[in-house]
């Protein structure tokens, strides 16, 4: 696993079929993805990166899961009631992703923005893999996605994640604990088991999709420093 | 793609496909009436999706927010919802399920909109193949006239306006339907469509439909028997039982 090397400059491409009639050479901006469980410091790091990038004179746009105009409110409700079966929920998330990809990510990249994605297809795939969905099926669905310029996975042991989540909100989230899977009726147990399974899925994905694993079991500043260093190398690589 | 029979489901799925105005809905309705009269466990899937998925789909359509990709994905979400929540349990319970349109509608429509065929098929690969698919083929002009005669208000996506084929909705609809028909014909053999001549009178078509279904499916296996055993706390209703017996 690489942890420290600067991401090499990649040529623009979609993972699969992509979106029709998009000229890849027009996408001048950069797509930077930050992945990691709740409590891994994702949002904090993204907020810091935005501030830093804007100070440096880069225009930024942020995207994330469940933020599309098309289906976000319905997805929110679906989760509250836990009423959709797994293929349905999976495709609902894919719709949410596609809507943001076409309406925000691609236009912003075309305009030369730096797009910061608070999670990307990897979380969506990992969640579904843990729920027993076929990996080849998922790869086909997300063949629409654009390959990011850099992906940082903030890695933290489940035992540490649980501590951070509890110290933040004194409660564990139903979905982040994987309660729908019936791993354990005890939420604490379920959380730890589910997050361990998610890490396993991420490790599997890392073999196919190149991403940088960042040890998040450090101070916020130290993680920021590493992210800045790698992103600066990416931007200087022009 | 395996059929429900090949996957050892106790139930069977019969699908009808065709352009709007091909008369397929009339035919499947009459088929349902016949099977019911025969005392068969039959269910007509009325394509009810959950409120949530429906709300997102109609918002996307009303506000014209959909691209070919999101159009395809949101309809796949809708289909998955019906499939997992509705069709699968019925097929597990040994019903004959009748579907007015199935995945082939999506294959034809999404590919016409420019989505890659293997991507679309991959998405729907969770769905098994119908045990019988009847394609109601009319001359394009006949089905177009049936729909357009009343000068209905065509909806944006229904008319294929998103494809910018023509600024006139009626002209756009004609071109769009023509292209969908081409897609249907191109996959007809691959998915073993039984092509029905939908220019014939309704009664004549229905005779063929009933014979085909009877030949393909051993209907005697799908007759309703006595009602399911009731939980002990539930008092038996003799009137209802008699009713069920008569049906069997």
What does this structure look like?
The complex is a heterodimer of chains A (238) and B (248). Chain A has one domain: Rossmann fold. Chain A is globular, with a radius of gyration of 17 Å. Chain A has helices at residues 42-55, 72-81, 86-110, 121-130, 135-141, 158-169, 187-208, 220-236, and strands at residues 30-35, 60-64, 114-118, 150-155, 212-215. In chain A, helix 1 (42-55) crosses helix 8. By secondary structure, chain A is α/β, with parallel strands linked by helices. Chain A contains 8 helices and 5 strands. Chain B is α/β, with parallel strands linked by helices. Chain B is built from 9 helices and 5 strands; from the N terminus they run βαβααβααβααβαα. Chain B has a 5-stranded parallel sheet with strand order 2-3-1-4-5, with helices on both faces. The A-B interface holds A 16-17, 19-21, 69-71, 74, 77-78, 83-88, 90-92, 94-95, 98-99, 102, 137, 140-141, 143-144 and B 50, 52-53, 55-56, 59-60, 65-70, 73-74, 76-77, 80-81, 83-85, 114-116, 118-119, 122-123, 125-126.
């Amino acid at each position: 696993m690489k942890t420290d090397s600067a991401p090499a400059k990649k040529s623009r491409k979609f993972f699969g079929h992509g979106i029709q009639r998009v000229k890849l050479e027009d996408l001048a901006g950069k797509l930077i993805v930050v992945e990691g469980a709740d409590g891994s410091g994702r949002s904090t790091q993204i907020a810091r990166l935005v501030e830093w990038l804007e100070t440096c004179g880069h225009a930024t746009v942020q995207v994330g899961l469940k933020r599309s105009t098309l289906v976000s409110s319905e997805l929110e409700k679906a989760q509250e009631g836990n009423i959709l079966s797994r293929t349905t929920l999976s495709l609902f998330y894919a719709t949410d992703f596609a809507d943001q990809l076409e309406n925000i990510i691609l236009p912003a990249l075309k305009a030369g923005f730096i797009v910061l994605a608070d999670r990307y297809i990897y979380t969506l795939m990992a969640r579904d893999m843990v729920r027993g969905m076929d990996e080849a099926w998922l790869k086909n669905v997300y063949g629409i996605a654009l390959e990011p310029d850099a992906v940082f996975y903030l890695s933290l042991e489940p035992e540490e994640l649980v501590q951070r989540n509890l110290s933040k909100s004194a409660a564990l989230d139903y979905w982040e604990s994987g309660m729908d899977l019936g791993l354990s009726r005890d939420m604490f147990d379920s959380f730890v088991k589910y997050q361990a399974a998610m890490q396993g899925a991420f490790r599997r994905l890392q073999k196919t999709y190149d991403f940088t694993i960042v040890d998040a079991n450090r101070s916020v500043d130290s993680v920021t420093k590493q992210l800045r260093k790698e992103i600066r190398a990416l931007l200087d690589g022009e | 793609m395996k059929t429900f029979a090949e996957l050892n489901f106790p139930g069977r799925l019969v699908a009808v496909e065709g352009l709007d105005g091909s008369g397929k809905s009339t035919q499947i309705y009459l088929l349902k009436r016949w099977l019911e009269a025969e005392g068969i466990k039959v269910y007509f899937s009325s394509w009810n999706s959950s409120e949530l998925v429906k709300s997102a789909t109609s918002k996307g359509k009303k506000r014209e927010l959909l691209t070919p990709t999101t159009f395809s994905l949101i309809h796949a979400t809708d289909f998955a919802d019906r499939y997992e929540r509705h069709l699968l349990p019925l097929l597990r319970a040994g019903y004959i399920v009748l579907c007015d349109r199935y995945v082939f509608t999506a294959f034809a429509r999404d590919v016409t909109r420019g989505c890659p065929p293997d991507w679309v098929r991959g998405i729907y690969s969770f769905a098994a193949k119908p045990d019988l698919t009847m394609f109601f083929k009319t001359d394009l002009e006949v089905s177009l006239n049936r729909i357009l005669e009343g000068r209905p208000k065509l909806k944006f996506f229904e008319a294929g306006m998103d494809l910018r084929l023509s600024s006139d909705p009626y002209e756009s609809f004609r071109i769009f339907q023509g292209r969908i028909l081409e897609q249907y014909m191109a996959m007809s053999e691959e998915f073993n469509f039984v092509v029905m001549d939908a220019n014939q009178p309704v009664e004549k078509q229905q005779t063929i439909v009933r014979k085909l279904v009877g030949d393909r499916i051993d209907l005697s296996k799908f007759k309703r028997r006595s009602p399911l055993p009731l939980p002990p706390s539930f008092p038996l209703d003799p009137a209802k039982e008699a009713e069920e017996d008569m049906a069997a």
